[in-house]
From TrEMBL:
Keywords: Membrane, Transmembrane, Transmembrane helix. It comes from the Bacteria. The chain crosses the membrane at residues 6-29. This is DUF4083 domain-containing protein.
């Protein structure tokens, strides 16, 4: 294998590794964002319930 072929092959391997690495990172971040959005929705529901209970207690 000549030096030129070795450099081309190593460059190709590095590019493929970078692409898979970034796509993996992107997938993990999107999963984290979905999880965070679900947590925010749950917190909103809890806050609404607490506000509703507080309003009912104030009305009594």
């Amino acid at each position: 294998m000549t030096n030129e072929n070795f450099y081309l092959l190593s460059t190709l391997v590095c590019l493929v590794t970078l692409i898979f690495g970034f796509s993996s990172l992107n997938y993990k971040l999107s999963q984290k964002i979905k999880n965070d959005e679900r947590m925010i929705e749950r917190l909103d529901l809890i806050i609404k319930k607490l506000n509703k209970d507080e309003d009912e207690n104030n009305d009594k």
